[in-house]
Design goal:
The chain has 188 residues and is of the alpha+beta class. It is 44% helix and 12% strand. A hairpin with a 4-residue loop joins β2 and β3. The longest helix is centred in the first third of the chain and has 19 residues, at 48-66. Bound molecules: zinc ion (ZN). Residues 85, 126, 130, 144 line the site of zinc ion (ZN).
Length: 188
Amino acid sequence: MLTDAFPRKANRAQFLDSDRLKTLDLPKDGRLPSITKRIEDAMKTDKRADVRRACAEFLDDASKFYEVPACGIRVLAARPLRVRERGTIELFGDYSPETMVIRVWMRTAVRKEVTSFGTFLSTLCHEFCHHLDFQKFGFPDSWHTRGFYERAAVLYHHARATPLKKLFWVPMAGERWRIDWQRTNRGA
Ligand SMILES: [Zn+2]
């Protein structure tokens, strides 16, 4: 995962706010983890309508908790040719701020392999965090800052009921950052 470049002109302050905002309030109950289980079960049976229904429930619940308008969800069989997200290499979903619709797909573009459940859930949380950026935090854009990835990870680990890992970052050219997965997985 690589962060977006620092904006050259407008919105630099908001970009830094997004970069610094590293956590997210979480529900105290186990509703999201239990809906997550249903997404996982639906993915095993490969029934797109069931996956969609469980994802919609997840997003409705999360939107209520964060007090943002509900967002729409489309679960596609395979990755469409045109996607809105830019800059990332692995791409399993997108979000449109204009329509507030998240799209996720169940198969990868190239080999049409089923997206792993972890990747699928991580994508759902990632796209929902774009929704939060616009609707909860009021950012004029939703950049992939370090804070953005941290917030998405907080939501993902809550949903999956797995322990949160500290993310380790490596500086890259052009004031960008990437996650050092070796250190992150080692935890030191
Ligand atoms: Zn994104």
